[in-house]
Amino acid sequence: MSHRRNMGIFLSNARLAEIREEQNRRKERQKKEQQEKIRKALEKKERQERLRREAEEKARKEAERKRLEEIERARKEEEARKKRVCALSEQLAEIKKLYDKLTGVDSNNFVSNDEKEISRQISEYSARVYWLEKIEKEFINMDCTNIPAKLAFEINKIRSDFKNVKSYSELQLFYTDKLPKYKNKIKDANSRFEEIKRIYNEVYSDYSALCSSCNVKEESFDLSDDGISAMNREIIQLKDMQQKEMVNEAINNTINEVFEELGLEVLASKVVENNNGSVYQKILVQYYEDKAVDVTVTNDGQLIMEIGLMDNEKRQPNSKEAEEIREEAANFCEDAKLIEEKFKEKGLILTSPSILPPNVAYSEIINISDYDLEIDNSCNNSDQDVYSNIRNHNYSSSHSSAKMIKGDM
């Protein structure tokens, strides 16, 4: 039979001390190991943190370098772009300046900062200028000095209108299509002008010769169909005038011959021009003593003879003088018939004569100062030989007027 016996186990103090010391050393060792692990972990962490920071710093510096490089590159590109834009803008400004000069208008001076837009505008304006210069050169080379006013107006209008065309394709179409048509019109007009000029010179030569012959101042005429027509009308009038002058000269010579043959002295003659342009010949013939025949030959073929008393001034006759003139007019009535017969013998035919009866109301004073003559009142001009020359033709006196003969020749 066994019995459990409780027996106590005791460690000696020394042993306990050893155990405690061992435990303390183990704890100390574990603590150191733990601290070492922590230190190493901290060092590792610090090293990793340092590496991370270094990596981040390196990355930051690299990023900053790249950023600065990018900024510098962008700056240089912007400067280069600005230089290109500036150069293109100057080029565009020059082209627009030339365009404005060609068109006569102020184009839009707004310039974009967009290089592509500026390049597009340069291309567009360059094309416009190219065709504008070609068209303008064609217009400059056109000889429009002698073309009709209507065609010149049309050319000037189309020349002004095409400058407002904005599309260079329309300018090109104008150059190739419309411009040749106007060039042909101008060519035809110049050819026509040369023909008109030739005809004008021929007609003007005749006109100038007639003006010189008729002692008429030459007028100026347009170098045109209308001018030639006007000049031909003037030529007709000048020829008519020339013919009338020839007739009048023949008439005047005939009148002078007749009066000289009848023994009547032609004292003076002159040509008178009225304000209306009509011209007539005045002939003063001494009839008897201080009486004279005042003969007027108009340019339309009218012959007027009237008896009057000669004096140095223009005045009305007094009653005595008026009666003397009336009596002399009555004597001149038959003499006028003889004069008419003499005219007829020399081919000067008087038609539709108009004879007014002698009347003191028709009595006139002939102002011989109009003929640059003077009467010397100190002399007694009572020579009746001249008067008797015409009296001896056996014509009896009959009543007539001072205006003896008036008719168409």
Helix proportion: 55-70%
Hey, roughly how much beta strand do the residues contain?
5-15%
* Number of H- or I-type helical stretches: 7
- Measure the end-to-end span: 214 Å
The total beta strand count reads 6
Question: What profile does the largest beta sheet have?
Answer: 6 strands, mixed
Average pLDDT rating: 77
> What is the global morphology?
rod-shaped
Order of helices and strands: HHHHHEEEEHEHE
Find the structural class using helix and strand composition. Answer: alpha+beta
Radius of gyration using CA atoms only: 65 Å
Which regions have little confidence, pLDDT < 50, spanning 5+ residues?
378-409
SSE diagram, text form:
Elements: H1 13-103, H2 115-141, H3 149-161, H4 168-214, H5 225-261, E1 266-273, E2 279-288, E3 291-298, E4 302-311, H6 319-345, E5 365-367, H7 385-391, E6 403-408
Report on the structure:
- The structure is a single chain.
- The protein has 409 residues and is α+β, with helices and mostly antiparallel strands.
- Strands 1, 2, 3, 4, 5 and 6 form a 6-stranded mixed beta sheet that branches.
- It has 7 helices and 6 strands, in the order αααααββββαβαβ.
- The chain has helices spanning 13-103, 115-141, 149-161, 168-214, 225-261, 319-345, 385-391, and strands at 266-273, 279-288, 291-298, 302-311, 365-367, 403-408.
- Helix content is 61%, strand content 11%.
- α2 (115-141) runs parallel beside α4 (168-214) and α4 (168-214) runs parallel beside α5.
- Among the domains are: 115-207, no CATH class; 255-408, no CATH class.
- The relative contact order is 0.06.
